[in-house]
């Protein structure tokens, strides 16, 4: 798994990637199940159409910003009511029968704990890889 971090002025971003030894269509199908939604958003989190709100049992919440089947999901993500507004973008890429998952989180404040957030998103990608 790869993780990178970038700081640009007052905000910071991070990226994590993982290649899964499964077909893209199978990874997407698993991601669209309730278990797949929870792997991405947290327990109780449900993806919807563009503009739909979501909330997980741990207090994280947001809005689906972009949804392109078999390609990309973008959503706002707030760890809790006091957290800054950030944007998470998950891209899926076919690589010769395998699937590369690229996840980025942007608009993080410079004081954000990037190591903890990177670890969180690495765990998310690992849960997605274990689906199905």
UniProtKB/TrEMBL annotation:
Among Gene3D superfamilies, the record links this protein to: 3.30.530.20
The Activator of Hsp90 ATPase homologue 1/2-like C-terminal domain sits at 24-130
One Pfam entry for this protein is AHSA1
**What family does this belong to?**
Belongs to the AHA1 family.
Q: Which protein are we looking at?
A: Activator of Hsp90 ATPase homologue 1/2-like C-terminal domain-containing protein
Say which species the protein is native to. Tessaracoccus flavescens
């Amino acid at each position: 798994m790869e993780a990178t971090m970038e700081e640009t002025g007052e905000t910071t971003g991070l990226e994590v990637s993982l290649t899964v030894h499964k077909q893209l269509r199978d990874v997407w199908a698993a991601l669209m199940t309730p278990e797949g939604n929870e792997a991405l958003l947290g327990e109780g989190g449900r993806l919807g159409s563009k503009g739909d709100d979501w909330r997980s049992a741990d207090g994280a919440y947001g809005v689906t910003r972009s949804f392109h089947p078999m390609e990309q999901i973008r959503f706002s993500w707030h760890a809790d009511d006091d957290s800054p507004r950030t944007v998470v973008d998950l891209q899926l890429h076919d690589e010769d029968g395998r699937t590369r998952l690229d996840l980025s989180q942007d608009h993080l404040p410079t004081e954000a704990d990037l190591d903890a957030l990177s670890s969180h998103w690495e765990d998310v990608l690992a849960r997605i890889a274990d689906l199905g």
